[in-house]
Amino acid sequence: MIVAGHAGNIAPRRGNKYRAKKATVDGIGFDSIKESKRYLQLRLLERAGRIKDLELKPRYELEVSGVKIGRYTGDFRYLELQAHGTWILVVEDVKGYSRHARDYPLRMKLMKAIHGIEVRQT
Fold this sequence. Notes:
Layout: E1 2-4, E2 10-12, E3 23-25, E4 28-30, H1 33-47, E5 51-56, E6 59-64, E7 67-73, E8 76-81, E9 87-93, H2 104-115, E10 120-121
Parallel strand pairs: 9-10
Antiparallel strand pairs: 1-2, 3-4, 5-8, 6-7, 8-9
């Protein structure tokens, strides 16, 4: 596919800037092979009863004092069984190089401050 570049130059489309290759598992599209493999691991943990209520691409609004700052979309959300028999909420982000994205650290701080959630990075 050809897209217009800066100042009207024409350049071929490059694809994902982190060179992640998309994958499909169970008819679900994933942004990377790594993310699709993690999905399969989580499905096994769910079948074993170690996690439950697995969700894909949970969205959280990032709002401070009534002002929308942005949105965070995780890769997975689930409840994880702890050793003492209680369940904790886990929001998980499968990361490679995109962890170094400019706004990523800020979004993680906002998730903790606004929603009280520390995102688990795998």
